[in-house]
Amino acid sequence: MAKQKTTAASTAGFGSAVANTFAMARYKRNQGRVTRQLTAASISLVVFFGAYTLYQTLLTENVATWIPLWTATAVTAVGLWSTFRIIHWPRFADFLISVEAEMDKVTWSDWSELKRSTAVVLITMVVLTLVLFVFDVFWQKIFTSTGVLF
Predict the structure, then answer these.
(1) d(CA 38, CA 142)
(2) Which class for 50: exposed (0-12), middle (13-18), buried (19 or more C-beta within 10 A)?
(3) Are 9 and 23 in contact (CB under 8 A)?
């Protein structure tokens, strides 16, 4: 990945950060689309569940009836706007673009290999469970008979 040239606007500090926060521009909008959409959906779910939990919590408090609704609405709006800005933040967007590019290079197993591998894992887990159960029963009998356990 090539380094971007820094401009006077990007090194201006607080002013450019505020301008970037309220910008509607979408950074490399056609690259890493699926990964960015899934990331935005995941973050949005967290925002919605958090706002709903806040709403439910404020309903149990002794406050005016409009406060929980407006507070939850404001948190949702700020959270969704932050989600939009996060997935278009250049460093994070470049990361998501590279993640999608790497995922395209992965060789995925076919169904028959997946079934065989799953069977091996499940059988191994059952065998290990039985072995640990036998060891546990054995040591429990030993310690109970010697008086270490009552």
Answers:
(1) 54
(2) middle
(3) no
Q: Taking the domains of the chain in order of start, what are their residue ranges?
A: 12-106, 108-150
* Distance (Å, whole) CA 78 – CA 84: 10
The model's pLDDT over 100-133, given as tens digits with 9 standing for 90+, comes to: 899 889 888 999 999 999 999 999 999 999 999 9
d(Cα 48, Cα 76) in Å, to the nearest integer? 6
Q: List, for residues 65-75, the tens digit of each pLDDT value.
A: 888 889 999 99
CA distance 80 to 85: 9
Q: Rounded to whole angstroms, how far apart are CA atoms 105 and 8?
A: 38
Structural element, H or E, at residue 71:
helix 66-87
Cα–Cα distance list, 123 to 47, 81, 114, 115 (Å): 40, 48, 14, 12
- Burial class of 66 by CB neighbour count within 10 A (0 to 12, 13 to 18, 19+): exposed
Percent of the chain's residues with pLDDT above 90: 48
How high is the pLDDT of residue 14? 59
